Amino acid sequence: MCHTDLNQHFGIDAVKALAAKAQNDSAFCESLFATATADDGRCSRNSAWVLTHLPKDCNTLIESHRESLTKAVLCTSDSSLRRLLLTLMERLPWDKEHLRTDLLDFCLLHLVDPAEPYGVRALCAKLAWAQCRHYTELRAELHTTLTLIEPHTISPGMRNTRTKILKSINNNTEPQT
After folding, report:
1. Which of 86, 105, 124, 161 could form a disulfide with 111, with the two C-beta atoms 3.0–4.6 Å apart?
2. Where are the alpha helices (DSSP H) in 37-170?
3. Same domain for 104 and 31?
């Protein structure tokens, strides 16, 4: 159920204040995660927006919600909520054991979808790279997928993301061990 404060329009100052509250109040923070992954319109978007403003030292808290975030990303039809949830997921470590083929397939599909906002596409590319970088075959598949995107058809930010990932693949850059 949506906390009343989260079902209204508010600005960045309110977001930062709620993020500070979440950092210090674990029950409130847990309710934000529950609401963000419930796909409940504005309330979910606002909850996710607040969570994206948690400080980096809260990444372990985000990590504990990896599964529910993944399920929500795969299920939501709300592109704004999808972008916010992907933003949270990008903060997570993606070691070999974190490969999720359903999420990888989702990312590969959505990074080439011209109907998706560029922010979602770029985040999908980054998450695909984070998962593929450990496996030669998957790096090759990501390379093929990224080369299908014509650089002149995308935004400068998406083009930059594409270029950086292709460079890492072409240089056979391995993750640090």
Report:
1. 124
2. 42-51, 59-63, 66-75, 79-90, 101-111, 118-132, 136-147, 156-170
3. no
User: Does residue 66 share a domain with residue 110?
Assistant: no
Q: Return the pLDDT at 64.
A: 94
Q: How far is CA 2 from CA 38, 70, 75, 155, in A?
A: 9, 20, 19, 35
Indicate the burial class of 79 (C-beta count within 10 angstroms; 0-12, 13-18, 19 or more).
middle
Query: Do 73 and 107 belong together in one domain?
Result: no
- Would you tell me how many other CB atoms lie within 10 Å of the CB of residue 142? 25
Domain assignment of residue 86, yes or no:
no
Q: Please write the tens of the pLDDT for every residue from 148-162.
A: 999 998 999 999 999
pLDDT at 177 over 50: no
Inter-residue contact 32 to 52 (CB < 8 Å)? no
46 with 98, same domain: the answer is: no
Exposure class string for 39-67: b at 16+ Cβ within 10 A, else e: bbeebbbbbbbbbbbbeeebeebbeebbe
Global confidence as pTM: 0.91
